[in-house]
Amino acid sequence: MPSVDAVAVQRMTSTLFIERSLRSPSSTRFWGLLVLASVIASAGVVGDSTATVIGAMIVAPLMTPILGSALALVLADRPQVVRCALLVLGGALAVVAIGMLLGWIVSPPDAFASNSQVSSRISPRLIDLLAALATGTVGAFALVRADISDTLPGVAIAISLVPPLAVTGLLITVGRYHDASESALLFGTNVAAIVATGTVVFLVYGIRAAAQESGLSVGQFHGWTLVAVATVVLLIAVPLTTGTVTVARDRSLAADARPVAEKWAATGKWQIASVEARNGIIVIGVLGLPPQPAPTELRAALDRNGMAGADLELHLVGGRTHWCPADTDTCTVRDAERS
Fold first, then answer.
1. Residue 292 has pLDDT above 70, yes or no
2. Which of 163, 211, 312, 314 is the most buried (most CB within 10 A)?
3. Quick one: CA torsion of 293, 295, 300, 306, rounded to 10 degrees?
């Protein structure tokens, strides 16, 4: 069985356990980098810039207290478990707050409806949990093995932590509360996966024995700890399974709606910018010059093609939005501009 020595355990604890004093080097580094990563991530999401968001992933320090929680669980160090958990929670709330602040300043007229950075983080699926488990395993393995620590930047990019929280804050400001909860679920999925895989990897590498040799305080490890961690992962998997089914249904709905929307737009020489479905709601973005085709005609066309049960949200250039509920032949205008 693989194992680590006392020197490696000392290195890991000094890396993962952030000091209590807010003025300590590890604490100032954590909070300073977290604030900067939050601003970068929020700006990247607002600007729909993948490169900027990736930069925020690399800078973000949230992986430290999350893996610290796993290490503290293995060492049965309750005070450190609580401290790491509070750091994760406090850090997450700080990122959401910064996202909300930027959202109040620069939220777009379409409420991020056409933003690819947002849309990619509001439909978590089981595949996201699988990817998070694999990435969390690599992260813990890289921490144990100093000779492969150069993989950690890749781990930070693969398991997104700060961007989903920034998206949560931004969506709260525009009233998209359901989607905000979905991006928060993605963050929770990643956290649960990191803690679960980190706990297993640290146990396999004999961290407890090495910690005792190095003189660290090690409590009694109970099997219920593993049961609790596994239970959290299974509970996370339930909404992700629902999300997987919903995403599959929405993709089918969007595929059916696109040709109908394109035929409707062609009558007024308009262009369809985007067609997607969110939780059974067809969302279409349209570009063109006045006069615009009648939204009620699109509603009727969708009904004729077997989509009468789906609500329609039609975003037009200039920030105007038409809402056409299912099973009706009328549409209302919503002004997405904020006063």
1. yes
2. 163
3. 110
What the block records as the tokens of 219 is 């409590």
CB neighbours of 21 closer than 8 A, spacing ≥ 6? 27
Q: What is the pLDDT of residues 41-88, one digit of tens each?
A: 999 999 999 999 999 998 889 999 999 999 999 999 999 999 999 999
b or e along 65-78 (b: 16 or more beta carbons within 10 Å of the residue's beta carbon)? bbbbbbbbbbbbbe
Q: Which long-range CB contacts under 8 A does 28-34 form with residues at least 24 apart?
A: 29/61, 30/61, 30/64, 30/65, 30/87, 30/91, 31/94, 33/59, 33/60, 33/61, 34/60, 34/61, 34/62, 34/91, 34/94, 34/95, 34/162
Which residues share a beta bridge with 312? 282, 324
**What is the spatial distance between Cα 169 and Cα 166, in angstroms, rounded to a whole number?**
5
Mean per-residue pLDDT, 236-252: 90
Q: What is the pLDDT of residue 319?
A: 59
Cβ pair 138, 206 in contact under 8 A: no
Bridge partners of 131, per DSSP, are: none
Model-wide pTM > 0.85: no
User: Residue 316, class by beta-carbon neighbours within 10 Å (0-12 exposed, 13-18 middle, 19+ buried)?
Assistant: buried
> Nearest to residue 170, comparing CAs of 48, 54, 287?
48
3-state DSSP call for residue 120? coil
Residue with structure tokens 């490696």?
8
Tokens of 41: 């991530």
Among 142, 162, 129, 166, CA closest to 67? 142
Q: What is the DSSP string of 34-89?
A: HHHHHHHHHHHHHTT-HHHHHHHHHH--THHHHHHHHHHHHHT-HHHHHHHHHHHH
Cβ atoms < 10 Å from Cβ of 219: 12
Whether the Cβ atoms of residue 33 and residue 59 lie closer than 8 Å to each other? yes
Pull the structure tokens for residue 104. 């109040």
Query: Which strand ranges, in their side-by-side order, compose the sheet holding 271-278?
Result: 271-278, 281-287, 311-316, 320-324, 332-335
